[in-house]
């Protein structure tokens, strides 16, 4: 385009934002490049509905950067209200970006708030948000994700045991398949290194 350019990095994590501000050596004596970084320290917390409606793009960035913070629920509620002025398709996409940035505790808090408002028949959230966070869908997705992780961990464990030449009895395999705790499976995977018997692995 024959015009000046900059490198813009959106980093919701403060540590990543700090790292990304460091100059990049282009090499060959051509100097360095200093990216512009949008991180939590720069992006304000937008909790005011009127401001979110005027500066919706900023409100979306705010929700991504601060949605898991102390005022996260207020930030997310502000952007949800602002998204009502978008068409359904775009609003759903923007909301999904925000929702994907939320960690599990904040997701649950948001889900609980929406369910509470639904039970009180208070239509304070866009329809698309209510549908995307429908309890049955969310629980189904969560259960499917957990099931997939458990199956993957079991498969990794059994393959590592086979490669290590450790004999597993039918009871040992049944114990692995019956385990529904991901942390336990991860511990057993770590135990394979240096283990000589099935008891060492399943300790």
Explain what the structure shows.
With 203 residues, the chain is mainly alpha-helical. It folds into 3 domains: 8-38, no CATH class; 49-133, no CATH class; 141-201. 61% of the residues lie in helices and 5% in strands. It has helices spanning 14-20, 49-54, 56-66, 72-82, 88-101, 104-119, 127-132, 135-163, 170-178, 182-192, 198-201; strands spanning 8-10, 24-25, 32-33, 36-38. The strands form 2 sheets. A two-stranded parallel sheet has the order 1-4. It has a two-stranded antiparallel sheet with strand order 2-3. Strand 2 and strand 3 (32-33) form a beta hairpin. It is flat. The model has no long low-confidence stretch (mean pLDDT 83).
Give a summary of the structure in a few sentences.
This protein is mainly alpha-helical.
Number of helices: 11
- Poorly predicted regions are none
Number of strands: 4
The strand order across the widest sheet is: 1-4
The helix/strand class is mainly alpha
Mind summarizing the main beta sheet? 2 strands, parallel
Order of helices and strands: EHEEEHHHHHHHHHH
